[in-house]
């Protein structure tokens, strides 16, 4: 990993603002989720727009052979959004495609990019996690609206030695499709193309079940990847988990036996930004000095699908 970028919509939506239209309160949202505010894309501001901004910051003057965009809120159902991102970034005819593993998408996309590089298919890959989840939630649903926000984060991966700082891997990736309906948008795809019931076109979530699965799977996957790498739990300096709920992050860290100060969290400012969550948390941790070169970092994510996965790296000096 050689570079990092991010983009957030300008509009900040506080819990108090949500409480003006929903039967909720700042106190409920803060204590149950750890979220104080989130960013919301303006009308017409899309996943591609945010992905381009984050990608531009990560690329600087450099170029890449491939773009892997983790998203489940592509600008269109068809085609993928990554080619439009590559075009707007002036990347010529670089390979470009989307990876949809929802909130685990960034870890899946890192694995895909690492595989492209290890397989000699590309030398440099731009990996972006970007989502406009506020486009999926029912604005009248107090069980989902407070949780999600919009954003994008990006990193550049380049070919290198597996023992240098920034080398990514091993990976632990899994899914459990039997539980897809715990968190999904039922209509609008090829199965239920159109529903008279508007709710079928919005995200529905069984929050308590998702909470339980998220804690168990992120802990299990973290242990698996640590074992593959030969790291002990005590080797981990920073735990960067998917920012779904501060209580999920704290419970998972506790299961693993990690100290509270190893947990990287920016959920209070951005909410759950789905595929953008991990790179945004990394970028904020670099900015505030909680993540510095040499730190051994555990990344773990969980999302709809269900999907989950983890990876590791020693934090590098970024270009
Ligand atoms: N404001 C006020 N009250 C709310 C509310 C809101 N926004 N949302 C739900 N409630 C109410 C419920 O109706 C319920 O009321 P009741 O006790 O009278 O029935 C009560 O609060 C408790 O609801 P519950 O769903 O049991 O709360 P919880 O502690 O499980 O927290 C979540 C709810 C959604 C915050 C939590 O389950 C969670 O974070 N789940 C995981 C979600 C997630 O991470 N999704 C993305 C995964 S990638």
From TrEMBL:
Alphabetized Pfam families for the sequence: ACP_syn_III, ACP_syn_III_C
Location of region: ACP-binding: 243-247
Keywords annotated in UniProt: Acyltransferase, Cytoplasm, Fatty acid biosynthesis, Fatty acid metabolism, Lipid biosynthesis, Lipid metabolism, Multifunctional enzyme, Transferase
Active site: 103, 242, 272
Matches recorded under InterPro entries: ACP_syn_III_C, ACP_syn_III_N, FabH, Thiolase-like
UniProt-annotated location(s): Cytoplasm
Biological process terms in GO annotation: fatty acid biosynthetic process; secondary metabolite biosynthetic process
Enzymatic reactions: malonyl-[ACP] + acetyl-CoA + H(+) = 3-oxobutanoyl-[ACP] + CO2 + CoA; (2S)-2-methylbutanoyl-CoA + malonyl-[ACP] + H(+) = (4S)-4-methyl-3-oxohexanoyl-[ACP] + CO2 + CoA; 3-methylbutanoyl-CoA + malonyl-[ACP] + H(+) = 5-methyl-3-oxohexanoyl-[ACP] + CO2 + CoA; 2-methylpropanoyl-CoA + malonyl-[ACP] + H(+) = 4-methyl-3-oxopentanoyl-[ACP] + CO2 + CoA
TM helices/strands, residue ranges: none
Domain Beta-ketoacyl-[acyl-carrier-protein] synthase III N-terminal: residue ranges: 97-177
Keyword Thylakoid: no
Gene Ontology CC: one annotated term: cytoplasm
Subunit structure: Homodimer.
Protein task: Catalyzes the condensation reaction of fatty acid synthesis by the addition to an acyl acceptor of two carbons from malonyl-ACP. Catalyzes the first condensation reaction which initiates fatty acid synthesis and may therefore play a role in governing the total rate of fatty acid production. Possesses both acetoacetyl-ACP synthase and acetyl transacylase activities. Its substrate specificity determines the biosynthesis of branched-chain and/or straight-chain of fatty acids.
Protein family according to the UniProt entry: Belongs to the thiolase-like superfamily. FabH family.
Domains: entry comment: The last Arg residue of the ACP-binding site is essential for the weak association between ACP/AcpP and FabH.
Protein name per the record: Beta-ketoacyl-[acyl-carrier-protein] synthase III
Organism annotation: Amycolatopsis carbonis
């Amino acid at each position: 990993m050689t570079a990092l970028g991010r983009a957030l919509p300008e509009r900040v939506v506080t819990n108090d603002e949500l409480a003006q239209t929903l039967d909720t309160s700042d106190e409920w949202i803060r204590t149950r989720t750890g979220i104080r505010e989130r960013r919301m894309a303006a009308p017409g501001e899309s996943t591609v727009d945010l992905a381009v901004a984050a990608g531009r910051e990560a690329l600087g003057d450099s170029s890449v052979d491939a773009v892997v965009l983790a998203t489940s809120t592509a600008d269109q159902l068809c085609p993928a959004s990554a080619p439009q991102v590559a075009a707007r970034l002036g990347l010529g005819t670089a390979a470009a495609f989307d990876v949809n593993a929802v909130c685990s998408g960034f870890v899946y996309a890192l694995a895909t990019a690492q595989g492209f590089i290890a397989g000699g298919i590309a030398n440099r890959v731009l990996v972006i996690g970007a989502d406009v989840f506020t486009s999926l939630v029912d604005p009248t649903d107090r069980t989902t609206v407070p949780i999600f926000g919009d954003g994008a984060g990006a990193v550049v991966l380049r070919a290198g030695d597996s023992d240098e700082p920034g080398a990514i891997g091993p990976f632990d990736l899994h899914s459990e499709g039997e539980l897809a309906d715990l968190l999904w948008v039922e209509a609008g795809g090829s199965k239920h193309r159109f529903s008279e019931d508007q709710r079928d076109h919005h995200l529905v979530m069984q929050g308590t079940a998702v909470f339980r699965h998220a804690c168990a799977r992120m802990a299990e996957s973290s242990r698996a990847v640590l074992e593959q790498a030969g790291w002990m739990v005590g080797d981990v300096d920073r735990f960067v988990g998917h920012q779904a709920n501060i209580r999920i992050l704290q419970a998972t860290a506790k299961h693993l036996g990690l100290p509270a100060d190893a947990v990287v969290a920016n959920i209070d400012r951005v909410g759950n930004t789905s595929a953008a969550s991990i790179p945004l948390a990394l970028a904020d941790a670099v900015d505030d000095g909680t993540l510095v070169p040499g730190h051994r970092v555990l990344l773990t994510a969980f999302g709809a699908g269900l999907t989950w996965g983890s990876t590791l790296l020693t934090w590098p000096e970024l270009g």
